[in-house]
Amino acid sequence: MDIIKAIASDINNSKHVVAFTGAGISAESGIPTYRGEGGLWGKYDPNIYANIDSFLQDPSYYWNFFREIRYPMLKKVKPNKAHLALAEIEKAENLKTVITQNIDGLHQEAGSSSVIELHGTTRIIYCMNCSQEYSMDEVFPMLETQLPPLCSKCKGRLRPDVIFFGESLKSQILLSAFKEADNCDFLLAVGSSLVVHPAADIPLRAKQRGATLAIINKDRTPLDSSADYVINDEAGKLLPQIVQNL
Known about the structure:
- The chain is α/β, with parallel strands linked by helices.
- The chain has eleven helices and nine strands.
- It folds into two domains: 1-30 and 79-119 and 168-246, Rossmann fold; 32-76 and 121-162, SIR2/SIRT2 'Small Domain'.
- The model is unreliable at 35-40 (pLDDT under 50).
């Protein structure tokens, strides 16, 4: 496939490559998307469990979702070929940073060392009172006797280190991501619908600053007309081919 070779060649000739990833890349590991068919995840409404006002009013809804669905799923899923391929591109010293909209930690599990998590991570939980941090493995057993779980240090309420609906992205994280967009000469957008802002502005910013933009996504995106390369297919199939051609 000539377009694969062309992307690989451009990556090889670039000095600062950045990957931008969305829910589509994790969907290939079995994590359902908010916007995909069937939605996420039937029994629980994301407009409640992922909404900050609802969480502050009644956190038990989120923690029931975490106990029944989120935690068991994260313990079961593994990085797929797309996650592993991005880690390989980093090892080959072509890829500098992964900017992700995902909160599942699969990039780090795959071996990527430089990851900017725009929407935080569900794997870290912290106390809203004293900021004590916990892993999700530490919090899960608490849910047998406490709902919502409380900080063992000060009895404050715990929350996941994610950006809920109704919250702004952390300014420092967003700044770091836009800095990468400004400095990169090749941006590879993978598995993102590119409709959620301000995250979707990052690939556009890179393109406007002169970077080559490649989009790999199963569906069309609003930035397709601006991109240098567009492939509508599964990342787990295409990214390993790009690695083979580096």
